[in-house]
Amino acid sequence: MRIAIAGGLGLGYLLATGLSRAENAYNVVVLSRTPRREFAAYGIQVHVVDYHNKDTLRFALNGIDLVISTISGQEQLNLINAAGHGRVRYFVPSEFEGGLSKRPPARSDPLDRGSAAALALLRQWSDGSSRMKWTVFSCGVFMERFHPYGLLGSLAIGAGEGVGSAGSYVADVNAAVADYAPRDSKGSSVKICLTSVYDVVRFVIAAVELGPASWPTEYTMRGDKKSLRDVVDALSAARNIHFQSTTLTYQELQTHIAYNTEMGQYARVAYLQRILETANGRYEFSRTTLNDAVDKSSRVSVQAMTFAQWLATVWT
Hints:
- The chain is of the alpha/beta class.
- The protein has eleven helices and 14 strands.
- It has a six-stranded parallel sheet with strand order 3-2-1-4-5-6, with helices on both faces. A three-stranded mixed sheet has the order 8-11-13.
- α2 (54-60) crosses α3 (73-85) and α7 runs parallel beside α11.
């Protein structure tokens, strides 16, 4: 099976190199806007592409069976169309955080960055003559959001989503402060699923090993599941320092969003909207279908890190 990875940095780099070194040693091609010499050591071919040029995209996807995207926006839409026209059989969009079922409609989703458009386009292609199948791999939240360098500094991920820097979600591990809503609209404890980026890569590789023909529309995976309060407590324990926490009720969260919108404090609004969506259950799911599939198979194995284990790799 020939696999194309769209994007050569961060998650794309880890996926490409991991798949090239997998037991089946897949034929991997990286689609990149610029030349990337570091892939030569892994025997990975790099296609320099212009995502706004449909002819170069179709040429790069010639003979490709599976596309895994780590890009977004109009570039991903163009990639999906090129894959559909090029008879690619399977497509994985850049939708790794947050399950599909808990997302609000596109027009009212404050966190949508072209995701709804990409999923709608994939549905069109799956129903059309090409019958291109697609699967979303949902991991909850990347543990690396809580890295002292943030997602962007540690793995070059998250810039376009506003969550790349340390302190952009729930807690700032460097400043030892937290800012979140511990309970949802019904008064229940807000929980999130967490997975390290490295384990997401291992899970995706395991899924490829199992074969994409049997993939569902969405695979869910996690390394851990914690309440936001427990997340902050774990960060505090890892740093051995007390965190100053500001907690909001669900109603206060909505009021603060309205107030900061009126005052033009849009960075604060974006932060609070991420917390609101968390309180609405966006990053929590009860079933872990990919964990289950891996556990049932004798061919693959993934031992995902718990949040405490991941923290130990960062702070010890």
